[in-house]
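new request in #modeling-help
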Amino acid sequence: MKILENKKSNVTVIELDGRLDSSTSSLLEEKLLAGLGFGEHNYIIDFAQVDYISSAGLRVLLMAAKKSKAAGGKVVLSALVDNVKEVFDIAGFTSIFMLFVSQEEALTAF
Amino acid sequence: MNCEIKADLAEIERLAEIIEEYGKTHNISPKIIFGINLSLDELITNTINYGYKGDKEHRIGVQLTLTPEEIEVEISDDGLSFNPLDQPPPDINQSIEDRPIGGLGIHLVRKMMDQVKYQRQGDKNILTMKKRLEVD
């Protein structure tokens, strides 16, 4: 799992590359917890290069969504491939996360 | 197909590659293979994280059986006796604030597979899953 981070005004864009599972989700968790700790509460997490997510990945996303919402921010997601989208559907996450087709569109959420 | 992995989270990705190869060889749709890999990941991760006492090395067996109609996947481990299917299903309609963190793994397995069964045989947990193959 590679994680690339960049800032667009008040939004932190996190691009993931690889599998988001029980052995890699802690990397994302550390990244998000560090950002939230610095007072960054708006996130776009881009899934264009993620072909696999398990409940360990969902757990980290829900944790980040709760913390950012409590601080007045939000976490939105972009570019989910079909298999990943299906996992979100089954978990009921498509009703709690805003999903966008691209990073550019996701920026309109802020 | 029979294989064995070490009870180590790093083995799950290697297992996924073996299953993907198997899927290609037997012409099984990538969507079904994705569901099988996700189910294996969820169940094996649970076993590795919660199924063992002490530092002894353990191994987990995975067996795939293909018929014209379905694929059967069996996982066997020598961990503590545990039926993951006893867990109640999560309420997936709750708001961000109310949703508990965790508890989604078994829910994903039940939804991805057509049938999931647990048995305790001697000192082993045996989890058997079935998935119907798509008929063109």
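bot summary: Residues 55-70 of chain A form the longest helix (16 residues).
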